[in-house]
Amino acid sequence: MSKEKPIILQGDGSLLLEVDSDDFNEIRTYLLNFAELIKSPEHIHTYRVTNVSLWNAASFKYKSSDIIEFLAKYSQYELPKNIIRQISDTIKKYGHLKIIKENDRFYLESNDVDIIKEIAAYKNIQKYILEYIDDNKIEIDRLYRGHIKLALIHYGYPIEDLGGYKDGDPLEFSIRDKMLSNGKPFALRYYQKSSVDVFYANGQSYGGAGVITLPCGSGKTIVGIGVMDKIQTHTLIITTGVTACKQWRNEIIDKTTIPADMVGEYNGENKTIKPVTIATYKILTYRKNKKSPFIHLELFFKQNWGLIVYDEVHLLPAPIIRVTSEIQSMRRLGLTATLVREDGLERDVFCLIGPKKFDMPWRELESKNFIAKAYCYDIRIELDVSQKEEYIMATDRLKFRIASENKYKFKIIKRLLKILEGKNVLIIGQYIDQLESLQKLMNFPIITGKTPQDERDKIYTLFKNGTIKILIVSKVANFAVDLPDANALIQISGTFGSRQEEAQRLGRVLRPKENENVSHFFSIVTTDTKEEDFAHKRQVFLTEQGYHYEILDDSCLDSITLYK
């Protein structure tokens, strides 16, 4: 690629950007406004232009002509005509339909008469129409604001929602300048403050709903607290589990003046509703059987919430998506490290939570020491002799498990722990039997789904204060476990194909360290097996994200030099 022209835009919407370009930083910053970063290895970064990424750009008032002019300026080849058309048509559609509020009544309006005629003809829209005002304007049922948005986005019409939000019950507090827990100074980092300001938009109707994308370990919880501080209202926070609930609660009490008795948890252990309530996706989507109602979804309506925070919004379950369509009058903040959804519902998140408001690449924060520099390794080993016959005779599904539970891995763990002596090490795996066998063999503390929450909290605390240096965890630690001093992770088994899981597990060791801001991520993989096939997907993912990656066999272990 030419350094003068560092972009190649292809007909499928993929876009290649050469890193070794004098204009790289400027180009990357602009690209993030209208294209999704797919992978960022050493020399060539790959983006993709999609309808959702273009709608995000349109929500920030980017014009198609400016985007096309930018691409033409830096593109090595002539721009594909179909992508030029896609950019023009997609951005043109955003804002053609608006929801507005006048005298407490809601209207759907457009300057294009034909669009109003078209959507009014859709049967699944007609039931939400209260009155035809004129050729450009129809009154809609305010209770179905989200349903209309969701229906129309599936027809290719993203709505610009300017209907505004109710204030919710007030909650006055401030952010501390010193943490309650240790008296150390506290303030939002520059990128956290920027993301809060972009989301809030000075309280205007075009702000107040959307997604902030930041890497694991970069302080998304602090961003949530920053948004709460801007809005000063009763807040419902939904997160991935009981441990995450407690961590959110501890952070809020530690870093704001909100009293502890005004922060409640709503989960399998506690169901306390307070001005700030932290719930789990699991409890909100609980029902006795497939035909029973979701009895806890009423929490969305039990208080006059002014803000809903969706932690790990890329995991938003379908029932929560549905109920979100009914609460469009509340401000909505989504937090995530990646907008990639395995079910492809990014469009629904855009529609009901809001556009992507802020994005920050992992590597940029790493270069500024806001997250730890990570070094990743695959340790390839032979299958234990005692399991080879069983593996040969097994089905493909069982072969993966046998390879994952390779008994020889325990010996490798012992050798790795000698290399990692003095480090704070997490050993994480998929299979409980394997983890429990490891615990019996090595007598390290263990946390699985069966571990009572009180015991989990005690073990996490001991790990955080350095009393415990090595901890075995199951996939319950994939999400929102705040162990800031963990600086090494040994992955003994996993799904090895889920991009989400790999990003989240790496995130356990990405939080910034006070001394050596470096982490090491080891995966032990059985070579020439089904596990190795899946492990290749993980290797590609980490390499695409730009992480230092090495493949070693067990004979190289003793010669590893850890990076500092």
Structure commentary:
This protein has 564 residues and is α/β, with parallel strands linked by helices. The chain contains 22 helices and 23 strands. The protein has a seven-stranded parallel β-sheet with strand order 12-13-11-14-15-10-16. Strands 19-20-18-21-22-17-23 form a seven-stranded parallel β-sheet, sandwiched between helices. Helix 21 links the parallel strand 21 and strand 22. Helix 2 packs across helix 4 and helix 3 (64-74) packs antiparallel against helix 4 (81-93). The longest helix has 15 residues, at 530-544. It is globular. The two termini are 34 Å apart.
Topology overview:
Blueprint: E1 7-9, E2 14-18, H1 24-31, E3 36-39, E4 44-48, H2 51-59, H3 64-74, H4 81-93, E5 98-102, E6 105-109, H5 113-120, H6 123-126, E7 129-134, E8 137-140, H7 145-153, E9 160-161, H8 190-200, E10 209-213, H9 220-231, E11 235-239, H10 242-255, E12 263-266, E13 276-280, H11 281-284, H12 299-302, E14 307-310, H13 318-324, E15 331-336, H14 346-352, E16 356-359, H15 362-367, E17 373-381, H16 388-393, H17 396-404, H18 409-419, E18 425-428, H19 432-442, E19 446-447, H20 453-464, E20 470-473, E21 488-491, H21 499-507, E22 518-526, H22 530-544, E23 548-553
Parallel strand pairs: 5-9, 10-15, 10-16, 11-13, 11-14, 12-13, 14-15, 17-22, 17-23, 18-20, 18-21, 19-20, 21-22
Antiparallel strand pairs: 1-2, 2-4, 3-4, 5-6, 6-8, 7-8
Helix pairs in contact: 2-4, 3-4, 7-14, 8-9
